[in-house]
Amino acid sequence: MPKPYHHGDLYSSLINEADNILREEGIEALSIRRLAQQIGVSRTALYHHFKDKNDLLCALAESGFRQQREALETIIEKGTSRTTFEEYVKSYIAFATTNQHLYDLMYGQLIWQNQLQTDSLKSTSKSTFKRWISWVGELQNAKILDQGNSALRVGQACWASLHGFARLVIDGIYINQSEIEGMTTQISNMLQSHDRQ
């Protein structure tokens, strides 16, 4: 049964419904035609927003980066401390593992290795990463993260660690929740500088 949407809010309705299909049924089930049927509009209306399925997938990935950016900003507003850094580590792993369908689009080979990303996706992902690197610099100044390398290098290393663990959880290597929580805390402690002087 088609889902109603408010006039002028078609784009948001499309993204939300596409996210639902992707989460529940996988990428193979998602198409412009299916989405139009679900929302109750013509395919022509969808083509005003997405020229093809890849465009739609990039828009979904972009929504994921916006969610990550919002989560980061919320934590930054609480201050720069060891506690907020650990909170960010936990929120990153939680986002990745509860939104596997989006995370795979955001960082997977389907879009990036095949060079299919839209300019909008590239811009959004880059700005999200730059904000992360900016905060890493603040964490370094507060002696929370390693000061021996550039913010970029430290930020890349931290992200690689978080991404690697997130993938292990997503791929089913770690499934016990208490073990996941323990590992997340350990990763946070491992990444932090222990020079408190």
CATH topology of the largest domain: Tetracycline Repressor, domain 2
> What is the total number of structural domains?
2
Largest sheet: none
Strand portion, in percent?
under 5%
Which blocks of ≥5 consecutive residues have pLDDT under 50? none
Structural class: mainly alpha
Number of strands: 0
Mean of pLDDT: 91
- Gyration radius (Cα, Å) is 19 Å
Shape: elongated
Task: Give an account of the 3D structure.
It is a single chain. With 197 residues, this protein is an all-alpha fold. The protein has 2 domains: 50 residues, Arc Repressor Mutant, subunit A, CATH 1.10.10; 127 residues, Tetracycline Repressor, domain 2 (Orthogonal Bundle). It is elongated and about 60 Å long. 26% of the residues are buried.
Q: What distinguishing features does this structure have?
A:
elongated; Tetracycline Repressor, domain 2; 197 residues; Arc Repressor Mutant, subunit A; 9 helices; mainly alpha
Could you give a quick summary of the protein structure above?
This protein is 69% helix and 0% strand. By secondary structure, it is mainly alpha-helical.
Write the layout of secondary structure elements.
Elements: H1 10-25, H2 32-39, H3 43-47, H4 53-76, H5 82-98, H6 100-107, H7 119-141, H8 151-170, H9 177-191
Helix pairs in contact: 1-2, 4-5, 4-6, 4-7, 5-8, 5-9, 7-8, 8-9
